[in-house]
Structure formats: structure tokens, C-alpha cells
């Protein structure tokens, strides 16, 4: 309340973006072009995930039917960590 009284206006961190079509967000255009599927590059359903290296290279794309254990293994492998470890430190 005090911050609002002094003219502070919170920024929007996230907002709805388009992921397909001409008006797709540039990030999604890049991700989809880097890893198209055998059915094309469109994102067909919620929860499509992309694994991106710290250098900005798109390593893989996962659809909705991929198990979490596959994501975990890929993440730890890319991070140079043991995929069987039980915690991030």
C-alpha cells in the first residue's frame, strides 16, 4: 500500500502470448524452428516443454506424453550432473 501511494506500479512479469501463427512470440518461433516434430513445428497442446542449454541451444522438445523421469534425466545430463542424484545443490 505504501509503495502504491508513492507512485510505484508493479510490472507484469507474465502475460498471455501466442505460440503459433504469424503473431507467435519470437521466443516460441525460435524454439519451434529449432526443434520441429515429425508432424511439423506447431505446438499442439499445453505442456509442451523445451530443454535449452545455458548457451541458448535447444536440445530437445517434449510433448505431453513424456514422463517426468525423462525430463529429469535429460536436465541433469545437460547440466553435467548425475541424473540419479536426489537433490539440486
UniProtKB/TrEMBL annotation:
Q: Which InterPro entries does the record match to this protein?
A: Glutathione_peroxidase, Thioredoxin-like_sf
Report the Gene3D superfamilies cross-referenced here.
Answer: Glutaredoxin
Segments forming a coiled coil:
none
Gene Ontology biological process terms, A to Z: response to oxidative stress
Does the keyword Oxidoreductase belong to this entry? yes
Key words of the record: Oxidoreductase, Peroxidase
Transmembrane feature ranges: none
Q: Please give the Gene Ontology molecular function terms for this protein.
A: peroxidase activity
Q: Which family does it belong to?
A: Belongs to the glutathione peroxidase family.
This protein is called what?
(rape) hypothetical protein
Please give the organism: Brassica napus
Upper classification of the source organism reads: Eukaryota, Viridiplantae, Streptophyta, Embryophyta, Tracheophyta
